[in-house]
Design a protein that fits this description.
6 copies of one chain form a homohexamer.
Chain A (H helix, E strand, L loop, with lengths): L2 E3 L4 E5 L5 H10 L1 H4 L11 H17 L2 E8 L2 E11 L4 E8 L8 H16 L4 E7 L3 H9 L3 E12 L2 E11 H7 L1
Parallel strand pairs in A: 5-6
Antiparallel strand pairs in A: 1-2, 2-3, 3-4, 4-5, 6-8, 7-8
Amino acid sequence: MFKYQVDEHIYLAITEMRHAEALHSVIVENRDHIGQFLMFARIQTLEDTKSFVQASLSNFAAGTEIPTCIWYDNQLIGSIGLRISQANRSASIKYWISKEYEGKGVMTKCCKAMINYAFRELKLNRIEIRAIKENVRSRAIPERLGFKHEGTFRQDVKLNDELADSSVYGLLAEEWNSGS
Amino acid sequence: MFKYQVDEHIYLAITEMRHAEALHSVIVENRDHIGQFLMFARIQTLEDTKSFVQASLSNFAAGTEIPTCIWYDNQLIGSIGLRISQANRSASIKYWISKEYEGKGVMTKCCKAMINYAFRELKLNRIEIRAIKENVRSRAIPERLGFKHEGTFRQDVKLNDELADSSVYGLLAEEWNSGS
Amino acid sequence: MFKYQVDEHIYLAITEMRHAEALHSVIVENRDHIGQFLMFARIQTLEDTKSFVQASLSNFAAGTEIPTCIWYDNQLIGSIGLRISQANRSASIKYWISKEYEGKGVMTKCCKAMINYAFRELKLNRIEIRAIKENVRSRAIPERLGFKHEGTFRQDVKLNDELADSSVYGLLAEEWNSGS
Amino acid sequence: MFKYQVDEHIYLAITEMRHAEALHSVIVENRDHIGQFLMFARIQTLEDTKSFVQASLSNFAAGTEIPTCIWYDNQLIGSIGLRISQANRSASIKYWISKEYEGKGVMTKCCKAMINYAFRELKLNRIEIRAIKENVRSRAIPERLGFKHEGTFRQDVKLNDELADSSVYGLLAEEWNSGS
Amino acid sequence: MFKYQVDEHIYLAITEMRHAEALHSVIVENRDHIGQFLMFARIQTLEDTKSFVQASLSNFAAGTEIPTCIWYDNQLIGSIGLRISQANRSASIKYWISKEYEGKGVMTKCCKAMINYAFRELKLNRIEIRAIKENVRSRAIPERLGFKHEGTFRQDVKLNDELADSSVYGLLAEEWNSGS
Amino acid sequence: MFKYQVDEHIYLAITEMRHAEALHSVIVENRDHIGQFLMFARIQTLEDTKSFVQASLSNFAAGTEIPTCIWYDNQLIGSIGLRISQANRSASIKYWISKEYEGKGVMTKCCKAMINYAFRELKLNRIEIRAIKENVRSRAIPERLGFKHEGTFRQDVKLNDELADSSVYGLLAEEWNSGS
């Protein structure tokens, strides 16, 4: 597969349509859990997942998104994507992971890989991560990676009919280059 | 014209292709000045302006943008637009105004009109304004209108080959409803 | 709203997708009545109305149509649209109004507004109105506004599986400018 | 070729992109002459002709147009097209012919073929021909074919920066069926 | 109709949407039989047939396909299409015919017409026919027409969940010109 | 990068727009050499290369192509792509490599990787390679990999205004699975 090897167990692979069913299964199993993240919470049917994948692929073809799935020992366990603004040389990272694999540092490693990709290969200058403020585990990832907390957006995201605040974190290429 | 009357001199009108030449003239005359705002700074030719207008009209047709020009005594003097996320019931406002009309409260009045439109007609819940941090005059607008400063994004915007920090402000429907 | 104020009660507003449900309700309530007009008679479901609105918005973005709804005391009561041929500097007006509001001069006022818009703002030269020949009330509008009867088209329009003749009226900018 | 044989010398063939150069040559040679007809007068370059052909082919694929060229002894000498409204079971015919072949009854024969195609194969009910009022030769065609003069549209068509009146003629299936 | 007259009974006509129902009927009646050919075997519903026709028309508008139906005494009995590569000046022919009309030389005559069209009008240089290896009758057509057998592709085509070998035949313009 | 590691020096990476300039340089340097292969020979300008990349990305998004560049010690040295027919569970491989890297087994290794990807990950059943018959080096690749020679297509490909024969090779999943 066309992949970015993160460690001996984990790799990221560009999301393809043939992954839609595996992706949908993990979303369905983790619906409540994913609801704490910024993405995917509105997906209901396999058709929704396929539309989501098709839109991501169109964005990839347009150069505005790097959509990937996270694989652990060849099993799909989550996703991580990069949304890119070439004009501002910046990107944002969005991610979620199956509950079962949480708390093992997988997400942090995957983010690190995406950051390396964004700064070193795509030559971007700034990366943003936006997490639900209440989701301590999700916020811990940018904090652990040296992102600066740059703001708190009130009622920024609508999830399950409720509006949640989000915490926004930023990282600059110069910080990453010096720091890792 | 299909317009939103702001006061006896000022109205906002949905940007149409027939406005492209007037719009382009004001952009060209104000290039240095506009460079301090978040939009339009990359437009060079009339073709660029027309492409910009066409993209805005497509967004309007898709329901994701309300693109308007600001008219003062029937003269085009700037623009103000609403980018909408129905999913999160939120929007952001972007604006710029000709140097000649700055400092007369025009922009503040236009933003107020857009906020009323967003909260009362579109029933949105949150509005964001992002201004270049160094542009005190631009930042004064959300501050004057009761927006909360929610964050400062470092190196967020590339303008004239330099990266500038931006100040992000948020306003909730409940704040506006109670406050105006 | 972005509107064209016709009088203290009536305004025209660019049709947006969020109006689709209100628009559909009026169409459904007035199906038999609207069947006498040239438009909308083939709409059955809310999906049809939404497709119709989406097509109109695409035409608006392409600069070939000004689709508006007619509002009376903030209630949607009909629609009036302008189809534009820039090449020939001409346009046609199509309209219908809820039965309840018929006979009060509302439609005549709305047409007058559209004609002003077409001649004075869009700088067009000719406007055409085509009405079902049998629909005396509909034909009365162009006649009252000074349009010349320019032709009668036999079996021109298929409505409810029947073919109806249409009366075609034309008005030139020079006539309107001198006459109103 | 996929054609409609009109007589032993003349046939109509669906316009294809490979005909664009031959078509463009005839348009260029006949520019002043064609200016008297309703179509093609705005074409300047071969690119314009190709765009015109491409648009016609898209309409053909959408079922709204039958675009054909007129061939005389295997030489392209003009064009004739049918614009179709399935909803109203009607169509309009537009045509022009090279000056050299005018006055020989070619155009009348081609129209007759198109009318047969429209009424007998496409099962349409009404055909309209619109000619420049001043162009006596062009108007003679519908008159000769039994069309009824249904109206005169003032300043209906802009040709070479002048506005011309048009004469509109209609023919019903029942008239053709009984009459030919 | 716009057609290519093959003999006094048979003609080919560009496939139009209005033929979809007649086409679908013949496909349904001949499903088992058509399964031996390379095309159409996956069509189930009238919607499938319409999608197929729409795709063919888009290809025709793009200049990459000449899709036709075969008519015998004004009855639709099969289809034959040309897929074109302008870059390589080559094309392939695909065909099927209703069981009832098989064995009468109809298909051979239709192919001959298409070959003449491709070599003499479209000025192509090479034509390919690919037939299911097991379908002796289908293979007999290129053999009878002087095509050279150029290869056998193993498990080339999936039909009814089985993989079939195909026989590929080629014919060059120089061979046809000298030979017929 | 999202890549398929072939050996310690070589990897394949999905072609992205940011690779267009590097890709174009290698094409320009190798124009005569590439002319012996089936692809890219018609590219002249950087714009051509960008159009080619954009078309490949659209195909990737549609699931019909896996377009990759070949990298050797992080330098772009050629390309290899997979065109997929899901309906027939088959694909074809197209490739070219910079002259400098020819004769070192790079291409054979890259094909092997693509074949593994096609059979094991995409679960396809048949792979085709088509090489210019005169290009002995290019033909050696499928022969070395165990493909069966299934046909020779006369005047199949137009390269530099000349028509060349092609040799077509096929490989089945069952052959690969048993043989490697």
